[in-house]
Design goal:
Elements: E1 3-7, E2 17-18, E3 21-26, E4 33-38, E5 44-45, E6 48-50, H1 57-69, E7 71-82, E8 87-91, E9 96-98, E10 101-111, E11 119-125, H2 137-147
Parallel strand pairs: 2-9, 3-10
Antiparallel strand pairs: 1-8, 3-6, 4-5, 4-11, 7-10, 8-9
């Protein structure tokens, strides 16, 4: 399914849903960031996705990172909550979702990189190389906030 992101675009369609979602800034022991190339829009992003009924939010983070990358992770803390109503995502099926995303810092605990139906590439990226990737501005903001260790929020799993 394809996806188009609109950011403060007066021609954007009106949102018809809100789905709590997560992304994870996963950094390995040498400081590289786990990045995915999304199959729905071709852009690079942090792994993540929607919160499912019956999960804690930390379980959502761990599941989404595993599903999209093959990496098992452990949540460290919360780096930000993003609810800009001017950011909507329009999907091929007619859903127009208003942003509601929480960004968590996490660390890898096991696994090997692999792609999924939602990812065309998965790789560890050095922070200096992040600027060379096609990353949506809202995702770039999450990455910047996640890498800023002075930004912390209390987190309850």
């Amino acid at each position: 399914m394809g996806r188009i992101d609109y950011l403060h675009d007066p021609d954007a369609p009106s949102a018809n849903s809100v789905v709590p979602s997560v992304v994870a800034l996963v950094r390995n022991d040498v400081g590289q960031v786990l990045m995915i190339q999304r199959s729905d829009n071709g852009r690079w992003a942090l792994p993540g996705g929607g919160h499912d009924v019956g999960e804690s939010i930390s379980e959502t983070v761990v599941r989404e990172v595993w599903e999209e990358t093959g990496i098992k992770s452990e949540v460290i803390d919360l780096s930000g909550i993003y609810t800009d109503p001017g950011h909507v995502m329009c999907y091929d099926d007619g859903e127009v979702r208003q942003q509601f995303s929480m960004c968590f810092r996490a660390r890898p605990v096991s696994g090997e990189l692999r792609t999924s139906t939602e990812t065309t590439q998965v790789r560890w990226v050095a922070p200096a190389d992040l600027a060379t990737l096609d990353v949506h501005p809202t995702m770039r903001l999450r990455i910047e906030h996640g890498m800023d260790r002075t930004r912390t929020a209390p987190y309850i799993g």
